Every structure is written in C-alpha cells, then in structure tokens.
Amino acid sequence: LGNVIGALEGSGGTGLKAMVCAHMDEVGMLVKHIEEDGTLKVQYNGVLDYRALLSAEVDVWTNQGAVPGVVGVKSRHLMKPEELAAPMGAEDLWVDVGASRGDETSALGIRVGDPILSQPNFRCLSGSTVLSKALDNRAGVAVLLTAMREIAAQRPDYTIYFVGSVMEEVGARGAGVAANSIEPHLAVALDTVPGRDPATGPAQSAVVVGNGPTIRIADTATLYHRRLM
Q1: Which of 26, 104, 168, 169 is catalytic?
Q2: Rounded distance between C-alpha atoms, residue 169 and residue 184, angstroms
Q3: Which of 52, 69, 176, 184 has the greatest number of C-beta atoms within 10 Å?
Q4: Which helix (H) or strand (E) holds 177?
Q5: Has this prediction a pTM greater than 0.85?
Q6: How far apart are CA 176 and CA 187, in angstroms?
C-alpha cells in the first residue's frame, strides 16, 4: 500500500510483537478539473480548514516535479453579505498556476488527480517553537525515528515493528493494513492532538505545548486499555 516498515528483532525469543506507527501523509487537495482559462478546480484530500487555504501558495505535484501556484477565491469586494456568512467549500476555490489557457496548464504536466500541497514554510520561532505546514504528522515521524535509534541500542526481548503509514488522512488505511499484516500484541500510534490556545480552554483540551507527550484515554473511534496508561 506504500507503508514503510522496519523490524527490530527481539533478543529473548518470546515471540511477542509490538508496533509503533506514525503516519507519513499530509492533508492537501487534488486536481479535479482543468478549466479553459487554465485554472484548476480542486477537491479536498483529507479534512482541511478552508480558512487556511485562501491565498495560500501551493505546489501541484506532477510526474515532472512541482508546479507552483496560488489558491484563489472570489474577491472580498464583490461578495454579498450572505456569501461572506456562508461556509466555503472546495467548489468555491481554484488554483492559479500562471497559465491563461487549459492547454498551457496541461503543457506544464498537470493532470487530473495530481496532488496539491502547501509549499514548505519551516521556520524557528522564539524558544524551541517551530512553525511549519504538516506538523501532523512530521512531529510523529520525528519521534518514531528517534525512538528507533534509542530502542535499537537496548535490544528488548520482544520484536518491535516501526511503521511509517500512508493514507491516515483519508481513513487510517495504511495503519490498518500494517496491523493486519504484522498482527502485533500491542500497538502504539504517534500523532498530534489539539492543544490549548487563546480560543481553547482546559475544558476542551488538557494538552499544553511544551509540557511533554500526551497519552489519550479515548477518541471518537477507540477506548484505550488503561493498563497502557
């Protein structure tokens, strides 16, 4: 399916297996249609907040590489009050790659189905805080790689499978395939969760950035065994 799996064989012959998983994909869009004026109509690939897309610089990933573009939306000056109040969907957006005709866009190598992702924007802020697109789940992958290095030196008596999974943003499909293939006795998923901010109080999230990792008790799909806490 596209997962990347590495195994650290156990030293004790117990036959026990653990899986540690972090997803490698990120939310984005797909090219749905190439318009006659050269712009691209899109559909979401994963759960996106359209408010973060307006005027965003993006890359359309073709077989020949990335083609830069920008997300467009109807001018604020021409929108009626009811349009401003209504939720915005993918059908209200387009991507402009600088072409003036559909054949010019096609000549850039762009095809229906090509993925569209926000352009890289990694920056260090004050202290140890970083700003970047797709920290969900670049953060989890970074933790996974660090854990691989540290655990490899310890050689536990059970076998650990480290999984970089695909398609989490469209239904956690990669993790399910990996789990059914490996059949671990225990699985741990590394991911991000909503944290406190000026609009989110402690009743909505107990997570504070900088206070260390979080172990979830439950989410919308799973209740976790308390012996793992």
Answers
A1: 168
A2: 23
A3: 69
A4: helix 173-182
A5: yes
A6: 11
199 Cα distance to chain centroid: 23
- Amino acid of residue 39: T
Q: How confident is the model at residue 26, as a pLDDT?
A: 95
Integer angstrom CA distances of residue 195 from 18, 47, 128:
28, 18, 16
Q: What is the pLDDT of residue 137?
A: 94
**168 given a catalytic annotation:** yes
Token pair of 132 as six digits? 């970047």
Q: In what order do the strands lie in the sheet with 4-8?
A: 4-8, 159-165, 17-23, 186-190
**198 CB-near residues (< 8 Å, 6+ apart):** none
CB 188, CB 46: distance < 8 Å: no
Label residue 130 by pLDDT band (50, 70, 90): very high
Amino acid at 104: E
66 phi, psi to nearest 5 deg: -85, 135
Contacting residues for 108 by C-beta, under 8 A, at least 6 apart: 62, 67, 97, 99
- With a CB cutoff of 8 Å and minimum separation 6, the contacts of 156 are 8, 10, 11, 12
